[in-house]
Amino acid sequence: MALLLRLVCLCSALAVALPARPPSVTIGALFTFDSVIGSSAATAIQLAVDDINRDATVLRGTNLTVLMQDTMCSGFVGTIQALELMEKQVVAVVGPQSSGIAHVVSHVANELRVPLVSFAATDPALASTQYPFFVRAAHDDAFQMAAVASIVGHLGWREVTAVYVDTDYGRGGVDALGDALEPVRARITYKAAFPPGAGAAALSDLLMRANMMESRVFVVHASPDSGLDIFAAAQGLNMMDTGYVWIATEWLAAAIDSESGGSARRTGLVQGVVTLRQYTPESDAKSSLQARFDKSSTKSRRMNAYGLFAYDAVWATARGIDAFLGAGGNISFSADPNIRDANGSALRLSSLRVFDQGDLLLRKLMLANFTGVTGRVRFDPDAGGSMALADPAYEILNVGGTGVRRVGYWSNATRQLSVRLPPISRQQLLLHNATQQQQEQELYSVIWPGDTTSPPRGWVFPNNGRPLRIGVPYRTTYTQFVSRDPSGGPDGVSGYCVDVFKAAVALLPYPVPVSFVLFGDGVKNPSYSELVQRVADGGFDAAVGDISIVTNRTRVVDFTQPYVESGLVIVSPVKAKSSNEWAFLKPFTPGMWAITGAFFLFVGAVVWILEHRFNPEFRGSPRNQIVTIFWFSFSTMFFAHRENTVSTLGRFVLLIWLFVVLIINSSYTASLTSILTVQQLSTGIQGLDSLLSSNEPIGYQVGSFARSYLMDELGVPASRLRELAITDYADSLQRGPGNGGVAAIVDELPYVELFLSTNCQFRTVGQEFTKSGWGFAFQRDSPLAVDLSTAILTLSENGDLQRIHDKWLSPGTCDAQSTSDVAADRLNLSSFWGLFLICGVACFVALLVYLARILCQFCDYHHDQGLSPEMERSLRRPARLGSIRDLMSFVDMKEAEVKRAIRSRSGERRLDRSMGASSVSEGPSSLSRPSSSMSPV
Q1: 703 Cβ partners below 8 Å, 6+ apart?
Q2: What mean pLDDT is predicted for residues 251-260?
């Protein structure tokens, strides 16, 4: 009982400590009553208030009241209405609907500490720390524009025209669109802004100017009430036909969803348009609310997505107030010393009161986390207080016929398009990532304006009467590539590159008006890097000529497919080889000659050793045997040896040696032929390595990128580089570095080939040390670069590219001479050491086998001899010296004699053993019987 009394006392104390809940709480609502968004929000807000007052678990005895104020689509009126609402001491405001009004009223809310819970102000700029009391109960336009950018990137468009209302809402959305397009390499090329309430004539004039641009992808960011006027003007200008792309933000879906019976009028203006709608998952609560909305609506309108978010915004506010009151919050207002009425003013500003505990209510609002009709509702303080579902998501809709059809989804959780439902929970997100990680973005087929399912190209040439300005280098040398037309043709330029460009443009399925502009002074070749930079800066729309595709240029412009393969090569002078009486020695290096001669003698000696005991041709006096070794050795070079080999080991060694001789003879003959017929370099430069290791001057063509490449990539000092015109190449190379010329020239392969075709005394050395090509340069993200690349590939496949090449770049008198004829190398040991190794191993193995066989025979022969008188004498000599001499004498014996001696000794030994055995068996009888020789005479 004591414990129970203590609990009762504690509860009574807490009840006394906590203030009593007020009987009613008032909130405000700011929106335009007679608007697509406002008409849906009005009914939704009232339904939410009724549902909250009927729910005993929310506010618990406190009645919620809402005061609605009409902003009348006016920033001024909206501000006045907001001030009047604040005079009535509301604790929170649902709204405002307009982003422009939200910017102004947020300052008032900050001062009076009244939270603003907006369901339709989507300007991304509102999500900043400047407006701490602004809470967005919907997704801001940054997410929506990311979805639009994904559509643009998915279909490969690179340029977009933005058509938008010139308000905070429109400007903020377009800025977000520009940021979202950057990752997909697209951009806004034209901004068509119209003032609020613009008439049909003003909209038509605006669209006519936009239609003169090249982009045919239009993104319309307007309000649901006036946005359809844009499409009405576009239809009058035939801008809703085939080839156009229209993407409308979520305002269009809201306008279409709001129509109850007259939707055909709206959808008839926007056939083929793609629009977005904030995704809200299907649920029983959502279906019930829509059914009750249809019964409650007095203007034959249906609920759109903004109405759903307005409904949840009221619920979020009520839950925040409930948490505020449950934490002991007391609703009280006090005067603001910063606000006072001016003398004679009728504005009654002093009646505005500060909500004393507005900070606490704001914190409780931000803690809301419940499931509403829009899905999971929670506020994200890290995103500037913008409420979000588990992840913002949008439906991609396509208008066709009398309604819309869903072609896909975009989710911020995955940042990609998909035909599957967006994940709305962490588990669904993990499952989605596991199944979609390797899949690309996808959409169902879209019916575009003009009733076509093929995605439009998205751009045309601007219809402003100005042809493309094409920069053409004004070359002064080798003008057959590109230069001013000396015949005064209509284009003013001519050359191989120009003809390739014209042929490629002729293959395009649309006309391309161009105007060629010469770039350069006509005195020397211009700088090609400066020409490319002019294109990047907008001075030219494109550049046509012998322009190399190098890394630093691709960073600022886009190039087409290369139409000429190119690369840097080295040119050096050559001179005819002067043969002399010792030319026959040049195929081999001295080391190669020495090793080859040594092996001839070595193999001859090995064969003599192997054949000496078997072959009488390798026997005789010492003088004859030495002569035989030398004769046999060198006669094998010509396969003219007369001596036959009879031993197995000798034939084995000779077979391998003859194969080596065959290879050496063939190589010698080929090398000598090359040396006697080729030309030799007049300088020591034989390739890139020798060029970099020397300190001699290097020439390069005026305006070429070779200078920057040699300095930046290869580290060649500027003091070694000499800028030359192609007409000075021959003179500089012939004079050489000792007479003010250059040792070599580094230039691109097409120029070098043309130069060498008429200058036979020069050659390229080494290999190409860069791989690039010539292409046409266009401004970044120009769609023409892609189409021309396809055309260039077609020219290459059908042979037109080669025919244009043959027309302008005909071969000269030196064209057939190959660069491989320069500087034949002498053969050295490194090319043949494998053959010599094989031959040496074979000789060594044969000698080992021969020696083992000799030792075995010697042992048998020595054992069979017994103790001869000579052996007895040898016992008195040193044992080792006698054995060596016996072995040498044995080796010099013929094989037949050795075998005969061994067989003879073996027979005698067997006879002796048999006689000895007989003597032993007859011994006793002979001793007992007197021999006949001992009989008396």
Answers
A1: 473, 524, 525, 526, 527, 528
A2: 88
CA distances from 724 to 327, 436, 656, 742 (A): 86, 58, 58, 10
- 96 cis-preceded (ω within 30 degrees of 0): yes
Contact 152, 186 (CB under 8 A): yes
For 176-232, the pLDDT digits (tens) are 999 999 999 899 999 999 999 899 999 999 999 999 888 999 999 999 988 999 999
Q: CA end-to-end span of the chain, whole Å? A: 168
- Residue 577 pLDDT exceeds 50: yes
Question: What is the Cα gyration radius of the chain?
Answer: 51
DSSP state of 74: -
User: What pLDDT does residue 389 have?
Assistant: 52
The DSSP string of 518-573 is EES-SSSPPPHHHHHHHHHTTS-SEE-SS-B--HHHHTTSEE---SEEE-EEEEEE
What is 417-459 written as a DSSP string?
EESSPPP-SHHHHHHHHHHHTTPPP------BTTTB-SPP--B
> Of 442, 549, 452, which is closest to residue 770 (Cα–Cα)?
549
Give the angle subtended at the CA of 365 by the CAs of 359 and 367, to the nearest 5°: 110
Mean pLDDT of the chain: 81
Q: Are 364 and 55 in contact (CB under 8 A)?
A: no
pLDDT (tens digit, 9 = 90+) per residue, 838-847? 888 888 888 8
Q: What is the mean pLDDT of residues 594-619?
A: 75
The strand pair at 568-576 and 24-31 is best described as unpaired
Alpha-carbon distance of 609 to 888, in angstroms, equals: 12
Q: How far apart are CA 43 and CA 296, in angstroms?
A: 7
- Whether residue 48 contacts residue 314, with contact meaning beta carbons closer than 8 Å, is answered with yes
Place of tokens 């911020």: 412
- Rounded Cα distance between 424 and 376, Å, is 8
Q: What phi and psi, each to the nearest 5 degrees, are found at residue 245?
A: -125, 125
β-pair type (159-165, 187-194): parallel
Sequence-distant (6+) residues with CB within 8 A of 149 are 177, 180, 181, 183, 184, 186
Q: Beta strand 568-576 with 393-400: parallel, antiparallel or unpaired?
A: unpaired
Instruction: Name the more confident of 844 and 830.
Output: 844
Alpha-carbon torsion, ordered 506, 507, 511, 512, to 10 deg: -70
DSSP letter for 709, please: I
477-508 burial code (b ≥16 CB/10 A, e <16): bbbbbbbbbeeeeeeebbbbbbbbbebbbebe
Helix or strand or coil: residue 103?
helix
Integer Cα distance of 179 and 536 in angstroms: 21
Strand spans (E) along 171-303: 187-194, 217-221, 245-248, 274-278
Q: How far is CA 559 from the centre of its chain?
A: 16
Structure tokens at 493: 């330029």
Q: What is the pLDDT of residue 656?
A: 80
pLDDT surpassing 50 at residue 937: no
Quote the CA–CA distance of 136 and 313 in Å, as a whole number: 9
